[in-house]
Fold this protein.
Amino acid sequence: MKRIIMAAALILIAFAANAQDHPKFRAGILANFSDYDGDESFPVSDSDVGLQLYAQGQVNSHFAVEIGYYNSGEFDTDLSPNTPSAQCGREDFCSTELSLSGFSLSAVGYLPIGGDDNDIDLFGKIGAYDFDIDITQTISSSSVPGSLGHSTGFAVGVGAIFNFGDNFGIRTGADYFDVDNADLWSLTMGLEYHF
């Protein structure tokens, strides 16, 4: 993962060096409203609030490369005494808390709207992610933290940036992550600084 981050940083710098007459870099922080819906093999279905950070280097006004950090918050579920669960290891009451965090690398396409003012930038992105999956299981009164390892896959997203002033914007969007054995959707909103 360290190699991916280093490569992404070098790409951002190289692309930004060629950018002219538009922002060279964008960076932001987003509130992350995520929904996790596991399949029958891992029946966790919940929503929570997390955090996203991102930085972009722009090639031109229509294309950028983005590296991001994602934290999902905690998803939890309670399993009834009569529900066999591979996660609990026995037929007993238990609860499971799950969280995902890690990095993504994406190509981002922009469609500026509003003439010279560029009041709104619509965008779409596609890329890959590498997340750590942490889990805490509670059986009766005992809590056992653990890890489900890594999940890697593709990610897509769409959204809009509402620009105000010379350097600030409000970014909203929707992301989908192709997580093993689950659907992970995220709605985001936050502040962007571009320069």
Remarks:
- The helical segments are 2-18.
- The first strand starts at residue 25 and ends at 38.
